[in-house]
Amino acid sequence: MSIDKTTKLTSTRSEENANLLLRVGWTLLLVAERREGAYQWLLYQFGWQREGEPPEITLPVLRVAQTPSDHIG
Prior knowledge:
Blueprint: E1 8-12, H1 15-23, E2 27-36, E3 39-48
Antiparallel strand pairs: 1-3, 2-3
């Protein structure tokens, strides 16, 4: 599908949330690797390219490590 068919955008840093968005019909547009100091992560960018509005879904809340020694739960 063409990028001009995109009507809404959303993004997440969570692979779990990215998979949920794919399952309900969002189109993956971009995966970008980000770095800031000692930290690095992936950013998943999605577009809604279907007729109508995207379905309402609740994405799990992730705990973010405050320091490199924190453990992600």
